[in-house]
Amino acid sequence: MNRISGPFPDVEHSEESTSSEARDALTAVVNLVQDGVEGLAKSAELVEDTVAQALFQGWSDERREFLADLHNIAARFTADDGDPGTAGGAVHRAWMTAKSAVTGDDEAVIEAAIGGEQTAIEAYEKALATDLPDYARPVIQQQLEQIRSIHDRLVNWDAV
Fold first, then answer.
1. Does residue 37 form part of some domain?
2. How many domains does the chain have?
3. Which value, in Å, is the radius of gyration of the alpha carbons in the chain?
4. Is residue 145 included in any domain, yes or no?
5. Which of 160, 124, 156, 126 is nearest to 143 (CA)?
6. CA 62, CA 77: separation in Å to the nearest integer?
7. Is 152 a member of any domain?
8. Does 10 reside within a domain?
9. What is the pLDDT of residue 105?
10. Per-residue model confidence (pLDDT) at position 79
11. pTM of this prediction?
């Protein structure tokens, strides 16, 4: 994935000045969403159930759209656009691959995805607790609600 390297322009050149806490929180969200794009796509590869494959791939595609929206927000208030995922995300994806290979169990992948979604929920909530600019807040809130919906669906997987 092509990513813009380094931070966006200095605060004095940005449309709006925002606290470093909000910039850091948004950068964390961007990184976790990148992890989500990759982790959900990996989940689609690992599960055997065709319904689960389609759901995970769709959720990964949705996260890619989230990422584009987040990069636009970050550019407006000088947040770093993040790294291509976090080291923790890479370790988590490797663990999912290994556990799935050993257990051959879709349930292990679903449990790992639940953990990833919970981490994303916490990052979004933390971002919303900062002084995000007014134009960013509704986007972050809407994405959080979609992630919560996915989390709930995963938690209640047997009902799917």
1. yes
2. 1
3. 16
4. yes
5. 124
6. 23
7. yes
8. no
9. 80
10. 46
11. 0.77
| Residue 21, CA distances (Å) to 25, 36, 65, 74, 100 in order | 6, 22, 24, 13, 37
Host domain of residue 147: 18-159
Digit-coded pLDDT (tens) for 58-95 = 999 999 999 999 999 988 876 444 544 454 555 454 54
For residues 78 and 103, give the distance between their C-alpha atoms in angstroms, rounded to a whole number.
44
Q: Quote the strand ranges of the chain, DSSP E.
A: none
d(CA 36, CA 89): 8
95 three-class SS: helix
Residues sharing a CB contact under 8 Å with residue 106, sequence separation 6 or more, in sequence order: 46, 47, 48, 49, 52, 100
Q: Which amino acid, one-letter code, is at 25?
A: A
Q: Which residues of 104-130 are buried (b: 16+ CB within 10 A; e: fewer)?
A: eebebbbbbbbebbebbbebbeebbeb
Nearest to 93 by CA among 116, 71, 77, 122: 116
Among residues 100, 98, 150, the alpha carbon closest in space to that of 124 is found at 150
